[in-house]
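Lecture notes, part 5. Sequence design as translation. It can be helpful to think of inverse folding as translation between two languages: the language of shapes and the language of residues. The source text, in structure tokens, appears below.
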């Protein structure tokens, strides 16, 4: 197990900084601090990978429909470019109106797709982070950590418990430890 320990003086300074004030003394226990890389949790955890698969499955039909619509748009545009000079002006104008209408529909559906996908992705990632935070809290309580941070400019590998959190998340999720990677 990799954890960081602070000297008694650092623990006193940290406790005073955190507002614990005079209650801390030089004879206080050393503070146990750890860090978790949330980005790795969202990239590597089996829960995050399952959420990504769920989103891909949920949105694949709409994505395929958009791809088909884009191909129709390109074919119509190519046809007008290729044959437009030889078309009657009214026919060419009608095809250009149809193309403009299809393009407007495509743009609207594409925007709705992105908005829906982003909303669902945010919901799924929030659920993954909620599960991760519960696991982190359990680890903190079981291993008597005083502080676990998730966002930091720098984290020493000796206090990084991300691998431990990934393993605990995998063990807690249906299907066990499959789908996690360790870096």
């Amino acid at each position: 197990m990799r954890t960081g320990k602070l000297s008694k003086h650092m623990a006193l300074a940290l406790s005073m900084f955190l507002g614990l004030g005079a209650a801390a003394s030089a004879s206080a226990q050393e503070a146990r601090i750890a860090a978790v890389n949330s980005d790795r949790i969202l990239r590597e955890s089996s829960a995050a990978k399952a959420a990504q698969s769920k989103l891909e499955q949920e949105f694949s039909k709409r994505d395929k429909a958009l791809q088909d619509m884009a191909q129709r748009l390109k074919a119509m545009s190519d046809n007008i470019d290729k044959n437009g000079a030889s078309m009657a002006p009214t026919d060419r104008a009608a095809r250009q109106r149809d193309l403009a209408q299809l393009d407007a529909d495509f743009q609207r559906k594409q925007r709705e797709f992105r908005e829906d996908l982003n909303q669902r992705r945010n919901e799924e990632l929030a659920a993954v982070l909620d599960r991760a935070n519960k696991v982190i809290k359990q680890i903190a309580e079981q291993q008597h950590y005083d502080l676990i941070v998730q966002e930091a400019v720098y984290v020493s590998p000796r206090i990084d418990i991300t691998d431990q959190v990934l393993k605990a998340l995998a063990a807690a999720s249906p299907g066990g430890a499959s789908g996690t990677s360790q870096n």
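The translated text above is only one of many valid answers, since several sequences can fold into similar shapes. The chain is about 65% helix and 5% strand.
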